Amino acid sequence: MEHETLGQIFIITVLSSNFVLAMFLGLCPFLGVSGKLETAVPMGIATSFVMLVASLCSYALNELLTRFDLEFLRLIAYIAVIASAVQLVEMVMKKFSPALFRALGIYLPLITTNCAVLGVALFQTARGYDFGQSVAFSLGGGVGFSLALILMAGVRERLNLSNLPGVMHGTALSLMLAGLLSLAFMGFGGIGVAR
Amino acid sequence: MSSQPLQASNMEQLLEGIWKQNPVFVMALGMCPALAVTVSAFNALGMGLATTFVLICSCTLISMLRRFIPREVRIATYIVIIATFVTLVDYIIQAVSLALYEALGAFIQLIVVNCIILGRAEAHAAKNPPLSAMVNALGMGIGFTIGLFALGSVREILGAGKLFGLSLFGEHFQPWVVMVLPPGGFFVLGLWLLFFAWLAKRKEAQHGA
Question: How far from B197 is each of A4, A167, B58, B201, B202, CA to CA, in Å?
């Protein structure tokens, strides 16, 4: 792990170890908001921002907790930080873009329970990333999440126009699509996989 | 206040979580752990039981405290309660089975953000007495475990030719490796959902005829 450069961590997290398609993090918004491109893009950006904030805060928190031998509080502390970060994004968005705020609806506060965000914090701790690596990891995670969301939205917009058997509609179809996307992303496996 | 049990309705609630509102197949909640850890039946069971434990404990506690939690900060309170029990489970699994702990990794801690638990806390435990909340949580937990097991066993049988680590098909079986890789998770869950959608459709057609 120590031999990876920051660029490698970033690329690997975006492509071969994509948060959504390879590690199954953040599936709820992935399936819920990927219906239209107009909502997929801002959702991706909002989540990426929260991820970055969560990563920075949890890095600092982890340092602090380790110093005082309080590792068992880690999970509770992380969750509290993420919840406040989401609140912040929500307030900013409500102020500057009310239309967007309404479009994202319930999914915005739900970023708190997005496993991708907590996943960033937990995985960077588990892998023992230092500060720079954590930033690269969270940026990669955010970009990867947005990429998967946007790709999926593009495909689903097209699918709405096509003729499908009735049973196929809904979540089952989205999962099949996600499987195909995931298969495609496995093609990037050659550039290395984060473990 | 908790002595209004109504035996029959408790039973119904239990069955509701297991079948009618199965969290994995019907409500499609808690998909991240459902897909990430179900590469084998054993992991799936472990994850299911851990989630059930957290679900029951936190729903019971939340239900007992429901009169004392102010509405404005209820979500934060729920999450802290859930996170406490998850930390407990994390240490328990580490002590009981190190192999399982290593296989599940960070996903044990990610139980905190499993939407099933927060969903149950908000939709049921916050409004009902402890006994009812416990039964409801138990039903959901069992339903979730069954869902995980259905995914995990299919993936293990197809992807490794084994069930619980025992070989099923003899040595000439060519494992269908993609099933234990990430895309396989999406495909198997998609197929299960298709199957249930098809069942529902058929039932509807029969009733209509």
Answer: 46, 6, 32, 6, 9
Helices (H), chain B: 7-15, 31-36, 41-64, 74-96, 98-104, 115-120, 130-160, 182-208
Enter the tokens of residue B102: 């290593």
Give me the residue spans of the domains in chain B. 3-208
Please give the pLDDT value at position A167: 67
Q: For helices B130-160 and B7-15, give the axis angle rounded to 10 degrees.
A: 30
What single letter denotes the amino acid at residue A88?
Answer: L
Predicted pLDDT at B198: 83
> Chain B within 8 Å of A193 (Cβ-Cβ)?
no
Q: What is the pLDDT of residue A143?
A: 92
Nearest in space to B192 (alpha carbons), one of B164, B169, B158: B158
**Number of neighbouring beta carbons within 10 Å of residue A80:** 17
pLDDT in tens, B131-167: 888 888 898 899 889 888 888 888 888 887 777 777 7
Confidence of residue B52 (pLDDT cuts 50, 70, 90): very high
Distance CA B76, CA B85 (A): 15
**Cα of B93 to nearest chain A Cα, Å:** 14
pLDDT of residue B154: 87
Q: Residue B85: list chain A partners with CB under 8 A.
A: none
Give yes or no for a contact between A20 and A140, defined as CB atoms under 8 angstroms apart.
Answer: no
Complex ipTM, two decimals?
Answer: 0.79
CA distance B44 to B21: 20
Chain B residues inside the 8 Å CB shell of A23: 36, 182
From B89, which residue of chain A is nearest by alpha-carbon distance? A72
Q: What is the pLDDT of residue A93?
A: 80
Helices B130-160 & B41-64 angle (0-180, nearest 10):
170
CA angle A112, A24, B40 (to 5 degrees): 130
Q: Does B109 touch chain A (CB under 8 A)?
A: yes
What are phi and psi for residue A2, nearest 5 degrees?
-70, -20
Closest to B89 (Cα-Cα) out of B62, B64, B125, B53: B53
Are B186 and A25 within 8 A, CB to CB? no
DSSP state, B104? H
Query: What chain B residue is nearest to A17 in terms of C-alpha separation?
Result: B182
Which residue carries 């975006």 as its tokens?
A14
